Amino acid sequence: MSSPMYEPVKIGVVYSTTGVTGLIESTQQSATLFAADEINRAGGINGREVQLYIRDPGSIAANYASMVEQLIVEDGVRLIMGCYMSSGRKAVIPVVERHNALLFYPTLYEGFEYSRNVFCTGTLPNHTCVPLADYMLENFGSRVFMIGSDYIYPYETNRIMKDFVFERGGETVEEIYVPLDASEESYRAITERIAALSPDFVFSTVVGVGVERLYRSFAKSGLDPNAIPIASVTTSEAEIAAMGAHLGEGHFTSASYFQSVDTPVNRTCIENYRRFMGGDAVTNMCWEAAYFQMHVLADAMRSMHASGSDNPVSLLRVLPGMEFDAPQGRIRMDEENHHAYLHTRIGRGNAFGQFDIVGGMAGRVRADPFVIAHTPSEGGRFEYATPTVAGSRG
Amino acid sequence: MKPSSPTTLQALQDIRSLRIAIVHPPDQERDELLGHIKRIGCKVQVCWPTFDAELHTVDLVIMAVNPQISACHFKWLGQEGAPPIIPVVTYENPVVIQAIMQLNAFSVIPSPVRSFGILTAIAVTLAQHKTQKSLEKSIKRAEEKAARQRTIELAKSILMKTQQLSDEDAYLLLQTQARVNRSRIETVADNIVRADSVRS
A254 and A130, same structural domain? Predict the structure, then answer.
């Protein structure tokens, strides 16, 4: 019985369920529990049970690092699922590198990173920002108001958006960064400013609790999403569920996945997830990446015949190039850059807290974490879709 | 035979006498930096949140850089005799790289900070800073010389026109005037150019 062949596979789960980004990270934690349950029900990984070690860093960067280190040193964990904001990921990287563990990071971020010990399964700006910029500049105009949370991701994302606006001869009418825990009053002052400046659209890279405050202030300032929509790559079904569908309606988000993706794989997955959660659970892009990366890891371990080793050195050999039928569609782990080929969709918030998919890229898009000057997506590859509203109208 | 020179470059020999200011929030990375700079043997003072040291008491600034910094304007940066900067960087993406370029940095210290690489960053920065300063000086000198040459040419052409002299004789006249007045040839030329501009 003490043979490693039958010992459980230990996986650390380090998502915040409290603090500024607790809402969205809770869904990533649930997705991980759900995937682990599926894997175990199907007989585990080559007969080995998946055992999760769950921690809550409370949205504080340093906690991610200390908790991951503790999991590695005290609990013998070598595989970690987790992190949301770049600051947390940055703190964890030296820890997993020092101990030769692996981090699986299922959150969109700004790119410009490669660590041998990290796999990123969320989107990069070349997946989502480029098509979103194309779509918004084409359909609404090029006077853009930019608002972001005050940390690295919004700065880098806005740099890309500003280049696109400039190329179109447009104008960035204002660029504002707010503290992660800014009050609703600060957002209210900003939405009043938006009303005064009347841009063609607002580009938001606000994350965490600020999302709800921004959209609520937007409505309170009497702004109409049909005239001046908010475009975002971070606002998902989770934030809309928290703020209320009416506040998200008419605004745009670009993502690899929406709950409304109308495929058999996604429909079945959502059904099973609801059964697992015992209620009417809502999914989102971060949930989906957290879900599929567990299965990619399990498949990678299964592909190593002997014992389904969790040895990072062996996993590093098999993970690149792996494919998986995820809820968003078939994804592929890139052979070289530890990121993923992902799908791209643009959704418009509807009255049910879901997204009507209004466009997307025809195929999977390769992750390009080190691109500095983005080129607009070639016209042919971008497809406008007739809205699909699966799962929203009971 | 070449004259003998010390095996160790002066820039390296000078490192122990350096006065370094560290502009960095209090955390583990700063402790790591301070610890290693003390090991190297430099004098160090900590400034936080702003660089508030007297410029002439600092030879080098080591500063934490975040994307917000690109919006900041450091008045001391452009000043004569401003010390060089080594940015401490956590992210390596275009917004941060642009901020580093604005600071005119020659090298960076990556964060999380490791002791390895700090000494090289300091040495390279000092050497490059010195080279740049002397380049700036010689460019300034060359520019001044070119300006003087232009004045002499101008004065010569004025003399050639007004006194019907050849190129050579005009120059000889300038030279004689300078000798008689015990002044420099460019001063004589300058006077002629000024006088001519008043006349016309």
Answer: yes
Question: Between A90, A111, A177, which is nearest B90 by CB?
Answer: A90
Chains A, B: CB contacts within 8 A come to 31
Q: B94 and A159: CB-CB below 8 Å? A: yes
Q: What is the rounded distance in angstroms from the CA atom of residue A46 to the CA atom of residue A50?
A: 10
Domain that holds residue A352: 125-260+344-384
Of B72 and B170, more confident: B170
Closest by Cβ to B94, choosing from A90, A113, A156: A156
Omega before residue A131 within 30° of 0, cis: no
The CATH class given to the B13-116 domain equals: alpha beta
The structure's pTM equals 0.85
CB contact under 8 A, B91 and A372: no
**C-alpha–C-alpha distance, residues B200 and B198, integer Å:** 6
Asked whether residue A230 falls in the same domain as residue A133, the answer is yes
Predicted ipTM of the assembly: 0.75
Same structural domain for residues A240 and A367?
A: yes
**Whole-number average pLDDT of chain A:** 92
CATH top class, domain B137-199: mainly alpha
Rounded Cα gap, residues A332 and A339, in angstroms: 9
**Same-domain check for residues A153 and A255:** yes
Q: In this complex, is the C-beta atom of B71 within 8 Å of any C-beta atom belonging to chain A?
A: no
Q: Beta-carbon neighbour count of residue A345 at 10 Å?
A: 26
**Which residues on chain B are in Cβ contact (under 8 Å) with A372?**
94
Residue of B nearest to A86 (CA): B91
Tell me which residue in A150, A152, A177 faces B91 most closely, judged by beta carbons.
A152
Q: Where are the domains of chain B?
A: 13-116, 137-199
pLDDT digit string, tens, across residues B177-186? 999 999 999 9
Determine, for residues A111 and B93 on separate chains, whether the beta-carbon distance falls below 8 Å. Answer: yes
Q: Contact A156/B92, CB-based, under 8 Å?
A: no
Q: Give the residue ranges of DSSP H helices in B66-184.
A: 94-102, 118-163, 167-181
Residue A373 scores a pLDDT above 90: no
Is the Cβ pair A152, B94 closer than 8 Å?
no
User: pLDDT category, B11, cuts 50, 70, 90?
Assistant: confident
CATH value at residue A169: 3.40.50.2300
List all residues 6 or more positions away from A173 whose beta carbon is below 8 Å from its beta carbon: A143, A144, A145, A197, A199
Residue B80 banded pLDDT, cuts 50, 70, 90 = confident
What share of chain A in percent tops pLDDT 70?
93
Residues 92-151 on B with a CB inside 8 Å of A are: 92-96, 112
Cβ distance A156 to B95 less than 8 Å, yes or no, reads yes
Q: Comparing B76 with A258, which gets the higher pLDDT?
A: A258
Radius of gyration of chain A (CA): 20
DSSP A6-58: TSPEEEEEE--SSSTTHHHHHHHHHHHHHHHHHHHHTTTBTTBPEEEEEE--T
Tell me, what's the pLDDT at B72? 66
Are residues B67 and A156, on separate chains, in Cβ contact within 8 Å? Answer: yes
